[in-house]
Amino acid sequence: MEVELQRTLSLEEERDCKTLLSLCNLEEEHPYDTDLDYDFFYLIRNEGEKETGIAEGILALLMGYKLGEQQGGKDVLLCLAFVHPKMRGQGLFTQCKESLMDDFRNCVFRFMKKGEREEDFSLSFPYLYTEYFLEKKLEEGIAFPGEKRIYPYGEVYFSPYNEKTLYLYGLMVENRYRGQGKGEAILRDCFEEGEKGPYTGVILQVDSRNSPAMKLYQKMGFLVKEASSYYQLKKRKKED
């Protein structure tokens, strides 16, 4: 089975890739979006149902895009990989990974996997961090607090996510006020002292490396709705 690099997908390839994603999502606790807005795709096609016993057209897919940041002077690529549930453990992911590393030699590879960190992650790649998607249900609906609210000790940023949910995309407390409960004061002012309105929930994203923010949001009643963990994708030492 050969690995093929595609920069774009035909309608048939897009359909087959979405079918593969849907099959994988049936096996996963945290389903993936079937959006295929990526810069490149590595495909392993099904060479024939008689040989594999599988009807679907794509057996493995590795896709990714450039993050727009650098590490050690190299561009960082974020990658996701999917293997047909009936073809796992047969080295298809390894084939895609090696092709990726041959084609993008001057890049750093970051692999994303839904869910919290797994100590026994089967691919054995070094863990980097986890990004948490948090949500809080408000006791009473509030009006839109504005895109930016400024306080003597910090500021907070919101945008509407939908008709009933706000997206909190920035909370900053000046250094000299940190550790004094000012972040909590800002959020309580927004959630408890504002005008009544239609927004009954707040969502946000936080990086596991920002432990003070994570502790604050959990104290304020935010719950983890989804998590994505990131690993350093690289060759094993015995392959180097």
TrEMBL record:
| Database matches in Pfam families | Acetyltransf_1 (PF00583)
InterPro entries per the UniProt record, alphabetical = Acyl_CoA_acyltransferase, GNAT_dom
The N-acetyltransferase domain sits at: 107-238
- Gene Ontology molecular functions: acyltransferase activity, transferring groups other than amino-acyl groups
Kindly state which keywords UniProt assigns to this record, in alphabetical order.
Transferase
Q: Which residues cross the membrane?
A: none
Q: Which PANTHER family match?
A: N-ACETYLTRANSFERASE
> What is this protein's name?
Acetyltransferase, GNAT family
Origin organism of this chain?
Oribacterium sinus F0268
Q: What is the lineage of its organism?
A: Bacteria, Bacillati, Bacillota, Clostridia, Lachnospirales
